[in-house]
Write a structure and sequence with these properties.
Strand order of the largest sheet: 4-3-5-7-6
Structural class: mainly alpha
Number of domains: 2
Order of helices and strands: EEHHHHHHHHHHHHHHHHHHHEHEHEEEH
Shape: globular
Number of strands: 7
Radius of gyration: 25 Å
Largest sheet: 5 strands, mixed
Strand content: under 5%
Helix content: 55-70%
Number of helices: 22
């Protein structure tokens, strides 16, 4: 990477070395990510069922087991890596959500590598490109929203963008130690989200293209170390090492199980990105094209991610967050170039501080996307259900929890409940009779408000989290009774019922 240089803005004023600007940019980025870490929302239930809940199970022995783990299609590396932060938070403040805040905050902190990598890649052109690229990485809503998410998509983004930046450097300045580090990043990204394999392979090829004799073997060695870590994590959890990779492919693609969660046409990602960016496309699209001329390889990686995922029938926006982040990076780079073109044709632009204007413009674009549909719908995902679970865990003397006629399955999770008590599921036409028969086994119930007359008479409503809604829409209400619990969950154990229902 070239040594930092001072540069001047369009007015001729000297601007400090760009790397001096990285610290405040990282500070802003951290604020946004910690703000996200403090929220109870989840983008998608996999954050809980595939990562947080199995990690919590390793820590406490109590967890709701999703069907993916029964089928053996999920690896254990990420849950194992999340367990220490969950344990630390729980040890410091066991009656709070610190274990979750700490875990998500740590992921947000690690994601600062994406911001620094954007900055470094921009610095390959100029200091102004570095500042704008880093700033966009810090404040762009789609990037910081996923940064603190305990999900494979966000974690893979945190690993892959620094890997891409490192590969660029290795192509020009081969280094055995850096090649080993790159291999480790690529291998970890593969374990976390193997669907990125085509893009990861291209990044590896870029790195070794400079001097294969110095970089190929260390890169392969680093990758093998990462894969070995994945295998060890599986074995530590009592699962066959890496067998989940094959089973995931065979079940989700071979048996087309993933299609049961919905399918979309091949062009869905393009239309969804367009719908999410909507009016911002007027700025983003021409800037993206301009940036792609500077970094055609980055554009290729983004296209490969979208193209490979477009072949899979089941699609979700989060699956291509790597491509979206890289597209935003290209647009940030291109916006600087377009401004310079504008300054050359519009003399008034020469008297404007381009860096400040571009930073404000990018912040406004991000805010517009975050505040409008379809993205704005994400801000409330899972908030009511998870908040109520946390409140249920803090009911004095809780000794058993029952979920009564809750339509979302699965919903209960021990990570938010934060109590090692039996959890039961009472559903179906006989749920009222089941509640009466099993009443001694629990003393706290989560149920829709309209279901209150069907509960045992000793229960009283504690709280409903949606008081602004009509009673028929208030699904998340907390009920409790005095006294202790006797008996066992039996056939009403939450995991047992989930398996019976095919969840």
């Amino acid at each position: 990477m070239p040594a930092p240089r001072d540069f001047t803005d369009t007015t001729g004023r000297k601007i400090p070395t760009a790397w001096h600007a990285l610290a405040p940019i990282l500070g802003v980025a951290l604020v946004f990510r910690l703000a996200m870490a403090s929220q109870t929302i989840v983008h998608q239930p996999d954050e809980i069922w595939q990562y947080l809940e199995p990690a919590w199970g390793r820590l406490t022995g109590h967890w709701i087991v999703a069907w993916e783990f029964h089928e053996g299609i999920r690896g254990w590396l990420v849950p194992m890596l999340l367990t220490p932060s969950l344990a630390l938070g729980h040890a410091i403040a066991p009656d709070t959500m610190l274990h979750l805040w700490l875990t998500r905050g740590l992921l947000g902190l690690l994601s600062l590598g994406v911001v620094a990598s954007f900055f470094a890649m921009g610095e390959r052109i100029s200091r102004q490109h570095a500042i704008i690229a880093g700033w966009v990485g810090a404040i762009w809503v789609e990037i910081f929203y996923f940064a603190a998410r305990p999900s494979g998509d966000g974690i893979a983004l945190t690993l892959t963008v620094p890997a891409l930046c490192l590969a660029m450097r290795l192509r020009e300045r081969p280094s055995m130690s850096l090649a080993g580090m790159l291999g480790l990043l690529l291998g970890l990204a593969f374990i976390v989200r193997f669907q990125y394999a085509p893009a990861l392979a291209l990044i590896g090829l870029l790195a070794v293209s400079g001097d294969p004799r110095r970089t190929l073997l260390p890169l392969a060695g680093g990758s093998l170390v990462a894969i070995a870590l994945g295998a060890l994590a599986d074995m530590a959890a009592g699962a066959p090492p890496l067998l989940w990779l094959w089973r995931n492919f065979a079940i989700n693609l071979g048996e087309n199980r993933s299609a049961s969660f919905g399918t979309q046409p091949p062009w869905w990602y393009v239309t969804q990105i367009g719908a999410t960016w909507h009016i911002a496309m007027l700025v983003l699209l021409p800037s993206l094209v301009a940036g792609a001329r500077r970094f055609p390889f980055v554009a290729l990686i983004a296209l490969v991610v979208i193209a490979s995922h477009s072949l899979i029938p089941h699609k979700e926006y989060r699956f291509v967050i790597l491509a979206i982040a890289l597209a935003v990076f290209l647009a940030a780079i291109g916006s600087v170039d377009l401004w310079k073109v504008l300054a050359g044709r519009w003399r008034a632009a020469e008297r404007i501080n381009a860096t400040i204007v571009l930073c404000v413009l990018w912040f406004l674009l991000s805010a517009v996307i975050g505040a409008t549909k379809p993205f704005s719908a994400y801000w409330g995902n899972g908030r009511a259900a998870n908040t109520l679970l946390a409140k249920a865990g803090r009911v004095p003397g809780i000794c058993g929890l029952a979920l009564f006629q809750e339509p979302d399955l699965p919903m209960a999770n021990y990570t938010y409940l934060n109590r090692s008590v039996p959890v039961m599921l009472l559903e179906g036409r006989r749920s009222a009779a089941s509640a009466q028969a099993m009443a001694p086994a629990f003393n706290v119930i989560i149920a829709p408000r309209l279901a209150a007359p069907q509960l045992p008479a000793s229960y009283r409503q504690v709280e409903c989290l949606q008081p602004h809604k009509a009673p028929e829409k208030q699904k998340f209400c907390l009920f409790a009774r005095p006294g202790s619990c006797t008996g066992t969950p039996g056939d009403f154990d939450y995991n047992t019922v989930l398996r019976r229902l095919g969840h």
